[in-house]
Amino acid sequence: MSRFFLFFLALGIFGMPFSVRAGESYAPETLANLVKPSVVRIVTHTVGEAEIAPIKVDMKRGLIAVDDTGEHKKVKVDEYVSGSGFIIHPDGYIATNAHVVSQETIKHMLASDSALAAFYENALYLSDEEAETFLQSGEAEAFGRRILQTVIENSRFDLASDIFVLNPHSEQEKAADLVKEAFPATVASSNEEFLRDDRDVALIKIDLDRLPALPLSADEALSVGSTAYIFGFPGTAELNTKSPLEATFTRGVVSALKTAAGKDFPIYQTDAKVSQGSSGGPLFNDRGEVVGLVTFQTGELDRSSGDNFAFALPVSLIFGEATKIGLMLDRHEFFAAFVHGVEAVQAKRCQEASRYFRITESANEIFSLEKSVMSYRERCRTLEAGGLALDTRWDVFRDGAEGLGTPILSLVGGAVFFVAIFGAVLFWLVRQVRREEEEIGALRRIVRDDERRFMERKYGSERISVNLKNAPVEKRSFRANRER
After folding, report:
1. Of 155, 57, 159, whose CA–CA distance to 111 is shortest?
2. φ/ψ of residue 428, rounded to 5
3. Per-residue pLDDT reduced to its tens digit, 216-263
4. pLDDT tens for residues 66-102?
5. What region does 212 belong to: left with phi over 0, alpha with psi -120 to 50, or beta?
6. Residue extents of the structural domains in the chain
7. I need a surface site. Which of 56, 202, 253, 330 has the fewest CB within 10 A?
8. Is the domain covering 28-324 a CATH 2.40.10.120 domain?
9. What does the DSSP 8-state code read for residue 297?
10. Is-contact 158 178, C-beta < 8 A?
């Protein structure tokens, strides 16, 4: 009984939940360290020339036509479009927005001047009341898209584009210098109809392997009120900032769930801060799983009135593009090793953490996890130096005992004392019982010896059996001899 009590007491002490459960939420600092190594900056460099068609519009009647009397405007093209992306497969596959890598973006940029000129020219013939009524009717946005599309369809474009994923170790500042040290990328899959169906998703590939891919959430569990996080590279298209390769981490909540143009998938609206250049970055939950693809922000008119929201597409669209090229998005071993290592550090199991961090060392040296892992290694060195690491059962027991507090320690101590007293009493009782059994056995041997000596004196030793168990038989034999 005492052994069972001690067994369950030890099980209760050593089985206390000192470790961090896998899959739980992480602090923002931890999330930033987990996700940042997998976020990349993408630049698309487009060169060539274009001839932009002049047009005329009639907002009252909703008419758009090419201006045959005007001349096509010739434009030399040398444009850099910058965006964000994130690694989804260790063999070099990266998710981003289609508009970051598509020539359609450049065409819209070039056509917008002609479209706006035609729009404002026609607006001069409208009264203030008519212009305001048109702008508030809800038709202005659709009409603007029609104007842009008309300009593009009637213009001529001769363009060539190169896509680059910037080297995170580059110290250059200008776009032209950055792309010289960047990694060329090819489009693996892209939806070129993104302007009409909102499926603004593309997958690109660089010629590198062993990259730290992020896991994509299969359940897309974000709902209104959920906390959401964003990583991206906000900045101008010319990349003229002093730190163009420093990703920005922001946090907000999902404020609404919008519906796509085709009403076939939701769009997350969040108040996490973004700006130009963040397109294509990951929207992720508090476990570091990607749940969305940041795509656009609130329009300029709404931003000027104080509203600024980011909008993200669901990861199901990324899975859809991957399916088109037969790509399975189930490999994120470096992220998993990093997560387990961080959990081990949080649980003070430094030897276990070191084993996991050694796995992260085999990641590609260009997109290395070393910088993110460094702070956790340092934390373990501090724990080990202070004798606070929990790498043995005794360490776990000691730490658990220290964490129990005086009242619980007193209770445990009392229980241990009670078990010790109970065990001692039980041990003494067992000894006493065995001693009495030995004394009884000795008395039985004395009685048998006395009985043997008595019978030998009375009947003679030659008729007494050595084995007392056969004594009744010997007595019958002796009685038969006397009768003869």
Report:
1. 155
2. -65, -40
3. 998 766 788 888 999 988 764 444 455 667 888 999 999 998 888 777
4. 888 888 899 999 999 999 999 999 999 999 999 999 9
5. beta
6. 28-324, 407-483
7. 330
8. yes
9. E
10. no
Residues 6+ apart with CB under 8 A from 369: 37, 212, 334, 338, 360, 361, 363
Nearest to 226 by CA among 246, 256, 202, 193: 256
Neighbour tally for 256: CB within 10 Å: 13
10 Å CB burial of residue 474 (0-12, 13-18, 19+) is: middle
Q: Do residues 87 and 96 lie in contact, with contact meaning Cβ atoms separated by under 8 Å?
A: no
- Locus of tokens 């956790």: 376
At residue 98, what is the residue type?
A: A
pLDDT tens track for 193-208: 998 888 999 999 999 9
Predicted TM-score of the model (pTM): 0.75
Q: Which residues of 371-400 are buried (b: 16+ CB within 10 A; e: fewer)?
A: ebbeebbebbeebeeeeebbbeeebbeebb
Q: How confident is the model at residue 382 (pLDDT cuts 50, 70, 90)?
A: very high
Look at residue 307 in the predicted model and tell me its pLDDT: 59
In 16-92, where do the E strands start and end?
Answer: 39-52, 55-58, 63-66, 73-89
Name the DSSP letter for residue 263.
Answer: S
Specify the pLDDT at position 401: 60
